Amino acid sequence: DVKVTQSSRYLVKRTGEKVFLECVQDMDHENMFWYRQDPGLGLRLIYFSYDVKMKEKGDIPEGYSVSREKKERFSLILESASTNQTSMYLCASSSAANTGELFFGEGSRLTVL
Amino acid sequence: GQQVMQIPQYQHVQEGEDFTTYCNSSTTLSNIQWYKQRPGGHPVFLIQLVKSGEVKKQKRLTFQFGEAKKNSSLHITATQTTDVGTYFCAGGAAGNKLTFGGGTRVLVKP
Predict the structure, then answer these.
(1) Which of A81, A106, A107 is nearest to A12 (CA)?
(2) Which candidate from B42, B99, B102 shows the least CB-CB separation from A104?
(3) Residues B39, B90: contact at Cβ < 8 Å?
(4) Which chain A residues are closer than 8 Å to B92 by Cβ?
(5) For the segment A66-84, what is each residue's pLDDT rounded down to a tens digit?
(6) N or C: which end of chain A has fewer CB within 10 A?
(7) By C-alpha distance, which of B22, B37, B1 is closest to B73?
């Protein structure tokens, strides 16, 4: 089974802190994604990556950056956390060879005080 | 940019009844995917539709892609308590980007 693992299920940070969210997938998928999920808004794409060292902005990239140094790992960085970044963050991966089905991690719930 | 709207946002269903959730895109889609998220869980892929007018069934779930490839629906017959969760549609466009709808949260009354 495909496994997408997110490093932290729950985090509490203070405004202005730097936050790292890590995601690792074990199925050699080319594509990796970071979404945030807020009630009533569905899942909104922050950043995605089709290959190592590559990154592309999604629909709401402001306030975030990403890093993909290895194929299996995709990190989301909040350089200076703000209260409006309190949310559930979901990492996903997909294979370039299949239908585009996304495999999601369990999510990281971030609270910024 | 592309927008995907889902209605209703909430659906209270009596166990055994049928219901439908609808998904509408502001632009023509290359494909549409549906996901289910159980309470406390993460979204899990259900199905993908690609062809205009396509209809696919999975047991009690029927998925349809509109002729113009701008809308889709999910119909569930004889709802069970195991159907509880939030159902998301996600529209695919150029560049393999998926745009998710806001989801329909389904609550089942026994």
Answers:
(1) A81
(2) B42
(3) no
(4) 100
(5) 999 999 999 999 999 999 9
(6) N
(7) B22
Low-confidence ranges of chain B (pLDDT < 70): 94-96
CB contact A102 to B (< 8 Å): yes
At position B63, the amino acid (one-letter code) is F
pLDDT at position B96? 65
Nearest CA in chain A to B91: A100
Q: How far is CA A36 from CA A90, B16, B22, in A?
A: 6, 34, 22
Distance separating alpha carbons of residues A101 and A50, to the nearest angstrom: 14
Note every long-range contact of B45-54, with CB atoms under 8 Å and residues 24 or more positions apart, other chains counting. Answer: B45/A101, B45/A102, B45/A103, B46/B87, B48/A99, B48/A100, B48/A101
